[in-house]
């Protein structure tokens, strides 16, 4: 049974979201402050976080940063901020997806299912794949990525994107294809969301994100992954 941590200071939202998730077979834990949320993250095995950005003690953005320093658990942000720049900022901090309030509880449950399903789809065609004389390594057994021997902290979506690219080197993917393969075929958010996830991934695995060696933009089409590959 997967455990979902719901972080929101509105009691009604906690009750409704928790009820819908429990009806779908999830175990839920509720927190109304950022401090409570971090205590649960550190003490419980949390499989998913639903995080409101407007909390009484700390901002949701700050809590997202803290969670990302300690865990790779998927994070879905709830926000009343409708501006695109504010939503992009949430994704850049490591959130996997976002929903704007008011939202449909049924859609939220669907998003949780989709994100968890793709987070568990970690089938690589080899136990370990390295690129450019060992500069970049994907280890399928530990589900980790290493750059020059150092572990790279990736979100579940970023790791999933790495696996998609690794399975299909030099293939050009359109945004729609990446959304389907990385975010899920039933993802109903904005297609441009994938651009921010790719940007975040580049900043983590590229020596110079402005002149990428691995993830290349194919103008007018999408993205493709390149690199001199050696299988271990």
From TrEMBL:
Keywords: DNA-binding, Phosphoprotein, Transcription, Transcription regulation, Two-component regulatory system. InterPro entries: CheY-like_superfamily, OmpR/PhoB-type_DNA-bd, Sig_transdc_resp-reg_receiver, WalR-like, WH-like_DNA-bd_sf. Residues 128-227 bind DNA. The modification 4-aspartylphosphate is found at residue 52. Pfam families: Response_reg (PF00072), Trans_reg_C (PF00486). PROSITE patterns: OMPR_PHOB, RESPONSE_REGULATORY. Residues 3-116 form the Response regulatory domain. It comes from the Bacteria. Residues 128-227 form the OmpR/PhoB-type domain. Gene3D superfamilies: 3.40.50.2300, 6.10.250.690, Winged helix-like DNA-binding domain superfamily/Winged helix DNA-binding domain (1.10.10.10). This is Response regulator transcription factor.
